[in-house]
Amino acid sequence: MQEVGSADSALRRSVEEIRSQLRETKSQQQSREELLSVLRLAQEDPGCLLATPNRLLESQPAIKQLKEGLVNTQLQTAQLQGLRSEAHPLVKSSRQAEEQIGRQLHEELALAIRGLEVETPHGCRPHEAA
Q1: 89-119 and 2-44 are packed helices; what angle lies between their axes, rounded to 10 degrees?
Q2: pTM of the entire structure?
Q3: Residue 81 contacts by C-beta under 8 Å, 6 or more apart in sequence?
Q4: Do the beta carbons of residue 64 and residue 58 sit within 8 Å?
Q5: Could you give the CA distance from residue 100 to residue 106 in angstroms, rounded to a whole number?
Q6: Using CA atoms, how far apart are residues 91 and 83, in angstroms rounded to an integer?
């Protein structure tokens, strides 16, 4: 009789572990889908990425680093514009740095999106005809 009770208890523990793993997997999947959505929006409008919470970018360190670099460069450009004209070489150089980071960010977004589409069920869809 006692063996039946302990087997039942072990079975309950196993069921609870499986349920816990399922919840964790669903949570990870939801997070990937949310990140994929944000990255797709950011590819069309880079301003969206600047408003993205860093927690979403934890799995994408290159994008997170480029985002931070872009913000820092934009701040530097704004500071320089407060002191110098738009034609000043330092302002021009800072603008060029912003553009370069923007291009790198766009390339990295495309790579990240492709990677997430592979990980996300139904995320990798053929492009529809226009």
Answers
A1: 140
A2: 0.69
A3: 91
A4: yes
A5: 10
A6: 9
Give 62-74 as a DSSP string.
Answer: HHHHHHHHHHHHH
Copy the structure tokens of residue 69: 């670099």
Q: Check residue 113 and give left, alpha or beta (phi > 0: left; psi -120 to 50: alpha).
A: alpha
Residue 14 corresponds to which tokens in the numbers above?
């196993």
Q: What are the pLDDT tens digits along the chain (130 aa)?
A: 455 566 678 889 999 999 999 999 898 888 888 888 888 888 888 778 878 877 778 888 999 899 999 999 999 999 999 999 999 999 999 999 999 998 999 899 999 999 888 877 654 444 443 3
Question: Residue 103: which of 59, 58, 46 has the closest Cα?
Answer: 46
Q: Is 122 exposed, middle or buried (0-12, 13-18, 19+ CB in 10 A)?
A: exposed
